[in-house]
Amino acid sequence: xxxxxxxxxxxxxxxxxxxxxxxxxxxxxxxxxxxxxxxxxxxxxxxxxxxxxxxxxxxxxxxxxxxxxxxxxxxxxxxxxxxxxxxxxxxxxxxxxxxxxxxxxxxxxxxxxxxxxxxxxxxxxxxxxxxxxxxxxxxxxxxxxxxxxxxxxxxxxxxxxxxxxxxxxxxxxxxxxxxxxxxxxxxxxxxxxxxxxxxxxxxxxxxxxxxxxxxxxxxxxxxxxxxxxxxxxxxxxxxxxxxxxxxxxxxxxxxxxxxxxxxxxxxxxxxxxxxxxxxxxxxxxxxxxxxxxxxxxxxxxxxxxxxxxxxxxxxxxxxxxxxxxxxxxxxxxxxxxxxxxxxxxxxxxxxxxxxxxxxxxxxxxxxxxxxxxxxxxxxxxxxxxxxxxxxxxxxxxxxxxxxxxxxxxxxxxxxxxxxxxxxxxxxxxxxxxxxxxxxxxxxxxxxxxxxxxxxxxxxxxxxxxxxxxxxxxxxxxxxxxxxxxxxxxxxxxxxxxxxxxxxxxxxxxxxxxxxxxxxxxxxxxxxxxxxxxxxxxxxxxxxxxxxxxxxxxxxxxxxxxxxxxxxxxxxxxxxxxxxxxxxxxxxxxxxxxxxxxxxxxxxxxxxxxxxxxxxxxxxxxxxxxxxxxxxxxxxxxxxxxxxxxxxxxxxxxxxxxxxxxxxxxxxxxxxxxxxxxxxxxxxxxxxxxxxxxxxxxxxxxxxxxxxxxxxxxxxxxxxxxxxxxxxxxxxxxxxxxxxxxxxxxxxxxxxxxxxxxxxxxxxxxxxxxxxxxxxxxxxxxxxxxxxxxxxxxxxxxxxxxxxxxxxxxxxxxxxxxxxxxxxxxxxxxxxxxxxxxxxxxxxxxxxxxxxxxxxxxxxxxxxxxxxxxxxxxxxxxxxxxxxxxxxxxxxxxxxxxxxxxxxxxxxxxxxxxxxxxxxxxxxxxxxxxxxxxxxxxxxxxxxxxxxxxxxxxxxxxxxxxxxxxxxxxxxxxxxxxxxxxxxxxxxxxxxxxxxxxxxxxxxxxxxxxxxxxxxxxxxxxxxxxxxxxxxxxxxxxxxxxxxxxxxxxxxxxxxxxxxxxxxxxxxxxxxxxxxxxxxxxxxxxxxxxxxxxxxxxxxxxxxxxxxxxxxxxxxxxxxxxxxxxxxxxxxxxxxxxxxxxxxxxxxxxxxxxxxxxxxxxxxxxxxxxxxxxxxxxxxxxxxxxxxxxxxxxxxxxxxxxxxxxxxxxxxxxxxxxxxxxxxxxxxxxxxxxxxxxxxxxxxxxxxxxxxxxxxxxxxxxxx
Length: 1263
Prior knowledge:
The chain is mostly beta strands. Among the domains are: about 90 residues, Jelly Rolls, CATH 2.60.120; about 130 residues, no CATH class; about 45 residues; about 130 residues, Mannose-Binding Protein A, subunit A (Mannose-Binding Protein A, Chain A); about 45 residues, ligand-binding face of the semaphorins, domain 2 (2-Layer Sandwich), CATH 3.30.1680; about 90 residues, Sandwich (Jelly Rolls), CATH 2.60.120; about 80 residues, no CATH class. Helix content is about 10%, strand content about 35%. The chain has 14 helices and 92 strands. The protein is extended.
């Protein structure tokens, strides 16, 4: 989207955004002081920009002095906000004098106006107050009305209004007046160091590098800027680091914007005394390589070992992604080292800040933009501590406010954080702003964060990409970015410890400051020693809850932090207060796993540098290789398994040893393998190891490895004087510098190195693709999906996860991830496409038919490069000469846009498209033709071999109408799918099998253009008729022919028509074997042509041959055979069922009998006088009370089932009647205990039954 404002030349245009709300870092509004994007860029707006304080406007007023203003807006539409509101004025006073003055016309230049400010207001827009409360005059100071119009305080007072004591217990901010105040000083992502009273500023990003000064210094006492002229030196860069050592400033890394945005690993040294540059090339690289990074931090420290080291922390590498490493540069030995660190496993990133504390000998690192779990990226609020002598990482309490490109300084034991980019929204805006003025303080002694008041100044000071230094206990902030490049100085004066007269107040002096009481006065924290931290008065620290510890996924990070966590059961991190069966609370007890290291690596290249990691291309993450891939005793190194043995062997015996282990002598062809072997043989301290390797002489002048790869003498080299003529085999000699030495193969060597291949378990692991930063064209950049993004304006390819940090200041005007637009304006063929690009204009030719040329240009005309070695553009009217009736368009296209194929009627309607074109603007070819007719292009007839009427309008690829014909020109048959024939001389047929039904579903989008399909079939039996059946879901035309010639289907006249039907849905027929004489014509072929159907359609077709008269004998034989077989199967099933049922019944009876046999039983004696009279027996005396013969107590023992014998009437003979029992047993339910009925009463009760000839007989056993 393009906006263009213009007035008279050199008029002053003032633009003001009263409202601006877009997606931060992705949507940008570019403002140019001119009529093209080749004019000076003066502002880039992005994000949520709202007033911080009522009356203070964050959105600055943008001023152009050329009389033009070009605004270009680009949005990716990830999510929508309310947009922006633009107001503009011409030759007006700035900001209407802020309502603190009046606008007056200049006497010398009538077209110019200026503000006459009211009393106690100053500045170009009368927006700067001065001498508040008259500076407390006369006791505190006085107001200087003649000079700089500010308060001049007495010796015992300070502050912008002289209201604070000297020293003071309160802090304040000031905006000093700097001299000279030049806009060219403004920059971002620069770096600054303090040397004496000067702040040295080097590098940085700016909109225009033509007048950019690489080196500046600022006098903190006089507030004067000085430009340091340097004849030779490094190219301009930003995102680098500076570190001061004695009289030298060490500059490392950074991005060189003028060199295609390359990230460099250059180390430059600027000598302050001589003001000259020198580049330092490292003498030695130890343990790995040197990393080219940007967005890192650096400090020069003196270790306990007396070594002076520059420590490089984290950063982003265009090759290796977000790095989590520490690099060490030893100044005296000019050597680099990438050391192994201990403690927590931290995640590095871009744009963090760090400070070095001399008391704790530690670097404190906060914030940054880095990789997050789940292949995500964003801002963090992490705080790490790195102990420089022990190389140990500790995780401290996070701030709670994520940010990057902020500043940090250390004052009085507190790390002060200011500003930064705090936007962390992805799909929905939560109000996070691009530019922040947040002010935070971290207390090193107490591990706690505090929020400090934001600067209370007359205007907002939101920014990111600035720098800060400390001088005399004050913080000086310079530059940065807040839609415009800032060139101001902010000064923060913290409270002074000497102002606290009481011991308690001194110890409690915070936030933002820490003091200590020394005898009878209060001193600053820096004047003490490390023991002060132990004596610091801090609030009691609470142990973190489980949910706070859960985020640590490894043992070391869980235990090397200050949150109070423990590693439990070797699988999770929980609070130290939680119960745990197997707990680890010290990181030195942790076992480091490969997963913990690999998961922190964010690119394929960095992943490949680690021995036990591999990159998953599908998941786009680094994964740990399983430890069991090689087996016990082997080490997994890259794609190979290595094993070192210390036995003394000859070459042949060493080779046999490796062969018995399913391997060979090692071919050390990669740096990983060489590094591993060299490290391992260094561990043999008691025995010298000089092992055989798989390198031997192939012929008189050629050495090769066992895996047949050539020896290149690069990764592993010969020792001086080697190879000698007597040696045909090589071993690795451990000298001061390890190298190869030749030896006779029969000689002995101390040790051997075996190698065997390893098969990766991850099928998605493949060699690394070329990094995005090394791809130079849009097509190469976007060929791998969303991995890379192409910026067309800078012609750079960047990693998708690093787009924001690659262009932190909106340097990319537009980007692509899939389709590529032409890289130059000349590649755009229509006026509409041309004017969509902000740097292009359209030169309409004199025919006024829409034909023309797209050129780089401005509103005034086309432009071209001044020279091949410069990016500066200049007007060149000869490219579109107006005197030859050429017309230049920059904002709106000419009305007639017929692409050169028609004139216009009514100025914008194409009269009649010619040259085989059609369309509203004659922009497409007619059906049956293809090409690009835009801008006078030609149309060409489709070449489709007679099998298509239309083709693709741009490529000419034919849309074949017959199913089974393929090829760009319909010249091939789809033989893979059983289609036969020759479309160049006929057509293609699908070969049908007899007695099978085929279904053809033409439902896909690829079948849209098909209107016909052809089949062929050959009878298989000469004595049977050939039946055909065809039906479809839509109407179709049908033609059937037959032929006995071999050239049928390709030569006209060979086929004889049989059937011709139109507009039918189904058809059945039979071709007589006698009529068509199948026996005499064994090669007879039937051709079926189905045509004129509409898409989509489903077609079913079948050819079959079978007898017409049914064979009754065969039918009945088959029927009864099936019936008898079924009957036999039923009988067998019934017999099996009966057998199973009988078996189950026997088993059930057996269980019942076992149950009955397991019941309890006992014997009882019964007195029975068989011969006595029953009346005498019943009425005779009974001895004792009658008892039951059995008692079965119930639950609770209050009731029971009692069993007695009954004596039934037996008649006169004493024998019971037939079929009856004389002595049955009877049971009944009765009570026990006190409620029980004794046997006598029971006998009386039962006596009543005797009247019914029933007698009761009880046993006479007492209880």
